[in-house]
């Protein structure tokens, strides 16, 4: 049996950008207003669609949105130098036929644009679901350049949420992996097992619990690999791998997992050898692999490369 150990072979697609988030600017209205004239804006509609050609996003002049930053705009990043260009995001309708989305192009965008879109989508999603105060029910307003909301009634400030989820490649320590599929996925698609970390639970404990709940299998040697933001709507995927006995009975969780099975190395290689449009059903493959925008594919690719 080969070693169970392996590492991520490359940085996940949505984790590549090292944006200068310029947190010090968020409460400096003078600097924000001064920088607005040279700033650029990324426009997303309510369905998180943006303008772009698949490799580059369309960033618009900020002044096309007015002489000052709109109240609902979010400062995403700024140039590295003190007077570097500010980059904002707003929610607004898009021209018909000119849109794409993060799932489709996240892996093909450059590191900067992937980071801009990932962050913009996550924060704007949070704003859409945080219009009212969780403490008193009062209306909330955007503050700190879009990085906080404040209740107009009780003054409570809230900040963008990130929900941690653990995603794990279960393998036998050799050349087989255990993958599952959800009923809503396109026919033939299988992926890693995953679930949200519960309150009071470690990520490693989440891996053990989720695998047990979803397929009835016990795992050990739970090992962390890396992380990736996943703004659908606001998660952080924590990647792991773990070892299980392939002789253990598989019991798919009713209503959650439609099917789960072991695939060998050649099956995974075949699935990864074609394009990564996860929406496409491919009857000539053992299974359809997750798309390149997902850390799941990166973990599978890394496992194959290090066999």
Automatic annotation (TrEMBL):
One of its GO terms (biological process) is NADP+ catabolic process. This is NAD(+) diphosphatase. Pfam families: NUDIX, Zn_ribbon_NUD. GO terms for molecular function: metal ion binding; NADH pyrophosphatase activity. The keyword NAD applies. NCBIfam families: PRK00241.1. It comes from Hoyosella rhizosphaerae. Residues 160-286 form the Nudix hydrolase domain. InterPro entries: NAD-cap_RNA_hydrolase_NudC (IPR050241), NudC-like_C (IPR049734), NUDIX_hydrolase-like_dom_sf (IPR015797), NUDIX_hydrolase_CS (IPR020084), NUDIX_hydrolase_dom (IPR000086), Znr_NADH_PPase (IPR015376).
């Amino acid at each position: 049996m080969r070693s169970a150990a392996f590492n991520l072979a490359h940085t996940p697609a949505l984790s590549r950008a090292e944006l200068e988030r310029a947190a010090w600017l968020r409460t400096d209205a003078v600097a924000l207003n001064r920088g607005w004239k040279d700033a650029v804006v990324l426009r997303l509609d309510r369905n998180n669609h943006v303008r772009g050609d698949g490799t580059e996003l369309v960033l618009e002049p900020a002044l096309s949105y007015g002489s000052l930053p709109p109240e609902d705009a979010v400062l995403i990043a700024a140039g590295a130098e003190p007077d570097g260009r500010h980059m904002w995001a707003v929610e607004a309708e898009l021209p018909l036929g000119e849109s794409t989305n993060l799932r489709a192009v996240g892996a093909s965008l450059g590191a900067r644009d992937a980071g801009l879109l990932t962050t913009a989508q996550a924060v704007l999603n949070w704003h859409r679901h945080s219009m009212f105060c969780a403490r008193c029910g009062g209306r909330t307003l955007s503050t700190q350049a879009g990085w906080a909301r404040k209740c107009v009634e009780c003054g409570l400030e809230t900040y963008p949420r990130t929900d941690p989820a653990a995603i794990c490649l279960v393998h036998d320590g050799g050349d087989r992996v255990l993958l599952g599929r959800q009923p809503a996925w396109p026919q033939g698609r299988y992926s890693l097992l995953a679930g949200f970390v519960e309150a009071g639970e470690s990520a490693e404990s989440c891996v053990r619990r989720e695998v047990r709940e979803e397929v009835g299998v016990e795992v050990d040697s739970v090992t962390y690999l890396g992380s990736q933001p996943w703004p659908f709507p606001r998660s952080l995927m924590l990647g792991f791998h773990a070892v299980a006995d392939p002789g253990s009975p598989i019991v798919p969780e009713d209503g959650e997992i439609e099917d789960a099975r072991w695939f060998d190395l050649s099956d995974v290689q075949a699935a990864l050898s074609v394009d990564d449009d996860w929406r496409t059903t491919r009857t000539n493959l053992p299974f359809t692999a997750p798309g390149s925008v997902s850390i799941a594919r990166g973990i599978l690719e890394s496992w194959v490369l290090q066999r």
